[in-house]
Amino acid sequence: MATKRDYYEILEVAREASAQEIKTSYRRLAVQFHPDRNPGDQEAEERFKECAEAYAILSDQEKRARYDRFGHQGVGGAAGSPFSGGFDPTVFGDFADILGEMFGFGGAGGRRRRGRQPTRGADLRYDLSLTFEEAVFGTTENLLIPRLETCDTCKGSGSAGDTPPEPCSGCGGQGRVAFRQGFLTVARTCPKCEGEGVVITDPCDDCFGRGRRELDRSLEVTIPAGVDDGSRLRLSGEGEHGALGGPAGDLYVVLSVKPHERFLREGATVLSEETVGYPQAVLGATVEVDTVHGPTSLEIPPGTPPGHEFRLRGKGIEKIGRGGGKGDHIVRLQIDVPHPRDLSDDESDLLRRLAELRDYPVREKVLDRVKKKVFG
What we know:
The protein is α+β, with helices and mostly antiparallel strands.
């Protein structure tokens, strides 16, 4: 007869190891050698059985004391194996606790389903498109939100009248059914009650036993001034209602902002361009420019070059979460250079006179060039 291995050696712990150290080591080894992770590996299956036997002894304080004093003879030798006929099934309690969630085992010590439990409702998303002005100044929108709401008829129970749900006959109210797979008992979700542990024998006519109905709910949403493209508003408790009285989820309103034909935006700052004539840029002028808050006057100093930027403070967009206040409006100056075909003879003569005074070489008139060629 082969000599049995030391239980401490099997679980790879010292003889003075604590109960928690033994349990932790067993958890690691059980996962490592479990047959589902080692299909067809006979050696791994034997190691798995060996670990289970060692843990069945060392996890029991009384049996561990007998084993420490008398060895394998003190715990009945092979009779101590959880896979032999003389094994006490109550030692499998920790075994089911350790592996139940990972592999779905059933067993005498397995965790029991607590029955139907309230669950939180799902979060919802609503995409809302805004104009540039609506995003800048804020607005109020009425949204129509399709969502699951608690059934008013059955108050969320799913049952008609006062008929309570009954324990599922398929799983005995556990929500899981067990079947044999080799030397293991494996548990799966009960197909009859879908894991609820109960069945509704007299379902509500309005929600068909589900406890919730899909309804279109109208909500008035206030959009604050200063929101930007991609901003997200969270409306707490406006998502789907939870099952069995569970808390409702949240509604997230995701905003998209349409572009403006004249204005660009960088955070709370508005950008625009203003075109003036060459004389205005040279001599200076007062012009009227558009902002998101309406027209305003802009002073252009004499000699302002093209591309110069003017900052109109406080003419931008409301700042959100930055201590309040408004951003600025930046106006970039452009110079209007007219096409020669758009100039009158007088305007052309004036520009040529200016060029002569400034000693700027310019092209001659077409007629003057022809006269020179003809008459010299």
